[in-house]
Design a protein that fits this description.
Layout lengths: L1 E2 L1 H4 L4 H19 L2 H9 L4 H7 L4 H5 L4 H6 L7 H21 L3 H33 L5 H30 L1 H21 L13 H13 L4 H10 L2 H8 L1 H9 L3 H30 L1 H25 L3 H28 L6 H18 L1 H11 L1 H21 L13 E2 L1
Antiparallel strand pairs: 1-2
């Protein structure tokens, strides 16, 4: 039986490994964030201290600062990419084991330092994983790799978020953190089983080269600044719409907290994962440019469903349609967007360039909150979501103009079962 290439690509060993490494990459985040906050609150720690501990997530936004080290230096075992993934997995597991033996009421400062260390090792694992995924996948498999990476990442966040809270409620926090540490140790097996990237790429010969040459190489390219602008703009409209979506469903539509939890969290997660998988499969057939354009248009149009919902008022059918379509399109767009970033990296400097490009992409998500609030206060919900649709259009126009600068992709032949 002939298997369509957009489905057969998911049977590739490299794609399977990326699912597990994506899970490994997503597992520690909540353990230094939301799950840790729950532990502190459950232990009676005051809210000011808990608020300060949110700064433990800072390494995730600054990881590009030490990414050159992971391009320059090669661990003795498993190679430049898999080696760093395995090393960071072991370090994450070690910190989780120590954290599990701590008591917030007796040593909150030490626990805070461990949370910061956990975030640092976790961010470092992200650097190594992104570089490995970029180096091991060819152009036709990048969309599928991005999709299963999103799937693994989201499942891991459920595991270290919702499942961890359930474990803590029944067995205590020590068992919870030690369970997560054991799970991380098991995932080291994915690094060992992962295939090596086929290209024999020479790493930078000095730290200076690792720090400076990624910038020099990138900005020597044709339309380098315009491509960087595309990275910032492509999901900007989506970022504006999502920034206040929970507040909109609560105040603008009038849903209860339980309804928001079920629809805006459960449905949204399922739709995002489904969208990423559909997008990753379609990319095999459509290629990078057509996928980016189609998924970008769907992202922009899906914002209009929130405008319709704001005008219509409370309607469960419209709420499900708006949240489902928005997150489905967002998942498809994320798969193509990650593939775009991978295509923009020189394999000598993948860790550094990917970290820098992903940092540029996060600019929108970080800074859209304040202007979104001002816009809603000035014009109301329905006009605000229409404006988010307009905000998405410049990125699509820029994408069309940059079409000649995007990589051409070879066809992938069908496979037989």
């Amino acid at each position: 039986m002939t298997i369509p290439p957009y489905l057969a690509v998911f049977r590739d060993r490299r794609i399977a490994v990326i699912l597990f490494l994506g899970f490994s990459s997503g597992l520690p985040i909540a353990l230094s964030g939301g799950t840790l906050q729950a532990w502190l609150a459950d232990s009676g720690i005051d809210i000011k201290t808990i608020g300060l501990l949110t700064l433990a997530g800072l390494p995730y936004t600054l990881k590009f600062l030490w990414a050159p080290l992971m391009d320059r230096f090669v661990p003795r075992l498993l190679g430049r990419r898999r080696g760093w993934v395995a090393v960071t997995q072991l370090l994450v597991a070690a910190v989780l084991l120590v954290m599990g033996g701590m008591s917030p009421s007796r040593s909150v400062f030490a626990l805070a330092l461990l949370a910061l260390l956990l975030a640092f090792f976790s961010a470092s694992q992200d650097i190594a994983f992104d570089a490995y995924r970029t180096d091991v996948l060819d152009e036709k498999r990048r969309g599928a790799g991005a999709a299963v990476g999103v799937l693994g990442y989201r499942l891991a966040m459920l595991t270290s978020g919702a499942l961890a809270l359930i474990l803590a409620d029944h067995f205590g926090w020590q068992v919870t953190y030690w369970t997560m540490a054991v799970l991380m140790l098991i995932l080291v097996g994915a690094s060992i089983a992962a295939p090596e990237p086929t290209d024999d790429v020479r790493p930078p010969r000095s730290l200076g080269e690792a720090v400076i040459h990624p910038f020099v190489e990138y900005f020597r390219r044709d339309r380098a600044v315009a491509l960087l602008a595309l990275v910032v703009l492509y999901k900007l409209g989506d970022a504006f719409a999502v920034s206040l979506s929970t507040t909109f469903l609560l105040r603008g539509v009038g849903l209860s907290l339980s309804e928001i939890g079920l629809i805006n969290k459960g449905l949204a997660l399922a739709a995002t994962i489904l969208g990423a998988l559909i997008g990753g499969g379609l990319m095999v057939k459509l290629g990078l440019f057509r996928s980016l354009m189609l998924f970008g248009v769907l992202q922009a149009v899906s914002n209009l469903t929130y405008s319709i919902l704001a005008l219509a008022g409370k309607s469960y059918v419209l709420v499900v349609a708006a949240v489902g379509l928005d997150n489905l399109a967002g998942g498809m767009g994320s798969a193509a967007f990650v593939a775009l970033i991978m295509s923009m990296c020189d394999r000598r400097y993948t860790a550094t360039q990917y970290a820098l490009l992903s940092a540029a992409a996060s600019v929108g998500r970080v800074f859209v909150g304040p202007p979104s609030g001002i816009m809603v206060a000035a014009m109301g919900w329905a006009p605000f979501f229409f404006v988010t649709f307009l905000i998405a259009l410049p990125g699509l126009v820029l994408l069309w103009w940059l079409r000649p600068a995007l990589p051409a992709e070879p066809a992938l032949a069908p496979q037989r079962a």
